[in-house]
Amino acid sequence: MAAGRPTTVGPALPFWPDEAVIPRRSAPSTSPYVRSYLIMRFLVGLLGIAVPVLLVFGEPLLFDDRPFPLGSLSTYYYSGAREVLVGSLFVIGGFLATYKIADHSWENVASIVAGLAAATVALFPTGRPGTGVPLTPLQASLGEAVVERVHYGGGAVFFTSLAVISYLFSRSGPKTGRRSPAFWRRFHLACCGVIVAALAFALVHLMLDWPGKGLLIAEIVAVWAFGLSWFMKGFEIVEEALGMR
Fold it and tell me: For the whole model, what pTM was predicted?
C-alpha cells in the first residue's frame, strides 16, 4: 500500500465510494480549523439543548397571548417565537448537511439526510392550533393536510437520522483519552436509544390522538438526547487529540 493512502474499510458500494480511514492531520497549520470544527460541534449541541428551553419558557415571557406550554415544539411556529424555531432548524440543518460533506461514510449520508429533513420541517409547518389562525401561503396552495403530512414525515426522518448518527458515534470512539472507549460507546448508544424511544412514543401519541403534552415531552427528550450526543462528541474528540489521561 502506498504511503499516506487511506485504507478501505468494508465492501465497495455501487452508489457510494469506499469508506476509508484517513489519518488525522496534526500539522500546526490545521489547528485553527480543528478548533473551529470543534466549536461548531459544541454550539450545535448547545443549540439543540437550548431550543426547547427558549421556546417553552422564553415564548411566554416575551408574548402573553399564548397558552403555556403549547402542544408541541412544532406548534411554536404559530407563536411569537416562530423565528427562533425556524432559524434554529435551518442553522442545525445547514450544519448537519455540510459538516462532513467531503467524507465518504455512512455518518455523512445520515447527516446530510438529517440536515435536509430539518429544512423540510422548517419549511412545511405543522397544522394550525385553531381555525382562528390564518393559513400560510404554502398551506393555502398545497392544502393544510398535505403540508402537515410532509412536516410529520420530515420530523420522523430527522429524528431517525439523528438516532443513526448517535449509533455511528458509538462505533467510532477514541482509542485514547481520560474516558474509556466503552464509556463513549455506552453514552452514544444511550442517546440513540432515547431518541428512538421518544420517536416511538410520539408516533403512538399521534396515532391514538392522546390528550396532554406527551408529544411536546417526546420532542424535547429527543432533541436533548441529540444535543447531548453532539456536545459530548466534541469532548471525545478533544480528549483523543490531546491524549488526556
Answer: 0.78
